[in-house]
Amino acid sequence: FRVYQPLTSELLPGETAREVVIDTCKGHGERVLLVEDNDPVRRFAARGLAANGYVVSEAATAHEAEELFNRQKGDFAVIFSDVVLPDESGPHLVKRLREKRPDVRAVFATGYTKGRGDWNLLEEGGYAYILKPYSLHEMLALVHCELTATKPGGIAARCGETLQADSPSVQPES
């Protein structure tokens, strides 16, 4: 994948690094299927994506997500899913949805560290992900990087990990 750097590393007067990232990663009407079982996390992500130019459809389970996907005839640019869902893992859901639409992009969020949860599914699939808690700009950078990669899964790395962590973030519930 390619990383585009600004011509200057200096910020404009009154501008913060977080504002630059958010402005760079805004959507332009791309449709996102958001799959997250934790209500506060899902609301945070949905509001953040919608406020920044993405059209968001929300699901709390893999079953709901598949119903939405089918109803919308797979018309999503990217699936942003939690890895661990109540009824199925996010990577398994994406694998099944890609049988219907192979070019749909997918990125993940997880509250688990390496070696726990369904971590191996992320690595095997070469999926991009962020760890919970994540900030608005980390989430936007992840989605933007995947959408601008040359192929689905093209970033295949943890996107946004070098971003500053000074913005409000969402904390996973125990």
Task: Give a structural overview.
With 174 residues, this protein is an alpha/beta fold. 36% of the residues lie in helices and 14% in strands. Helix 2 links the parallel strand 1 (31-35) and strand 2. Helix 1 (17-24) packs parallel to helix 6. The longest helix is centred in the N-terminal third of the chain and has 13 residues, at 39-51.
List keywords for this structure.
14% strand; 5-stranded parallel β-sheet; alpha/beta; 174 residues; 36% helix; globular; disordered N terminus; 6 helices
List the helices and strands and how they pair.
Elements: H1 17-24, E1 31-35, H2 39-51, E2 55-59, H3 62-71, E3 78-82, H4 90-100, E4 105-110, H5 119-125, E5 128-131, H6 136-148
Parallel strand pairs: 1-2, 1-3, 3-4, 4-5
Quick structural overview:
By secondary structure, the protein is an alpha/beta fold. The chain has helices at residues 17-24, 39-51, 62-71, 90-100, 119-125, 136-148, and strands at 31-35, 55-59, 78-82, 105-110, 128-131. The longest helix has 13 residues, at 39-51.
Strand content: 5-15%
Return the structural class. alpha/beta
Largest sheet report: 5 strands, parallel
Side by side, the strands of the main sheet go: 2-1-3-4-5
β-strand number: 5
Helix/strand order:
HEHEHEHEHEH
- Overall geometry comes to globular
Helix content: 25-40%
- The total count of helices amounts to 6
Cα separation of the termini: 36 Å
**Poorly predicted runs of 5 or more residues:** 1-12, 156-174
**Radius of gyration, CA atoms, in whole angstroms:** 15 Å
